[in-house]
Specification:
alpha+beta, HIT family, subunit A, 3 helices, about 30% helix, about 20% strand
Length: about 140
C-alpha cells in the first residue's frame, strides 16, 4: 500500500469514508463530491493504478460488485438506471483504480458527460485505427 494513496488509506480505515460495501477484495464508498446522491466509488483493496494493472483473477469479483451496486441504486434509491465508468490515468484524480457507479434518472441533467463525439476522416482512417488496436491486442495475447 503506497502511503500517499488516499484510497489505500480508506481501505485500511486510516481515513474515514461512507462505506456502503466491503469484502476481502473490494470496497465501495460514497464519493465526497457526487454527481448525484448515491454516487459510489468502487475500489480493489489491492493497490493498482489502472484497469490494465488489475489481475484477471480480480476483474470478475470487482465487476460483480459493480453490477450489484448498480442494481442496488435502482432498488434502494429509486434510480431509473446507472452510469458506470473508469478513468485510466487521464482524469483519474486518485491514482488507484476506481469504478464510478452513479445513479441516474431520465432528464437528470447529465448529458454528453465526458465525450465530445466526432467522426473518422474516412473509412480508411477508421480501418487504420481498427488494425492498430487489433494488432496490439493480438501481440499482447488479449484475444
Amino acid at each position: 500500500m503506497p502511503a500517499a494513496c488516499k484510497f489505500c488509506q480508506i481501505a485500511a480505515r486510516a481515513i474515514d469514508a461512507a462505506i456502503v460495501f466491503e469484502d476481502e477484495r473490494a470496497l465501495a464508498f460514497l464519493d465526497h463530491r457526487p454527481l448525484f446522491p448515491g454516487h459510489c466509488l468502487l475500489i480493489p483493496r489491492k493497490h493498482v493504478e489502472t484497469l490494465a494493472d488489475l489481475s484477471l483473477e480480480e476483474i470478475s469479483p470487482l465487476f460483480t460488485v459493480a453490477q450489484r451496486l448498480s442494481a442496488s441504486m435502482e432498488q434502494g434509491l429509486g434510480a431509473e438506471g446507472s452510469f458506470v465508468a473508469i478513468n485510466n490515468r487521464v482524469s483519474q484524480s486518485v491514482p488507484h483504480l476506481h469504478v464510478h457507479v452513479v445513479p441516474r434518472k431520465r432528464k437528470d441533467g447529465l448529458r454528453g458527460f465526458f465525450w465530445p463525439r466526432g467522426k473518422y476522416e474516412s473509412g480508411d482512417a477508421m480501418e487504420a485505427v481498427r488494425l492498430k488496436l487489433q494488432q496490439s491486442l493480438e501481440s499482447a495475447g488479449r484475444v
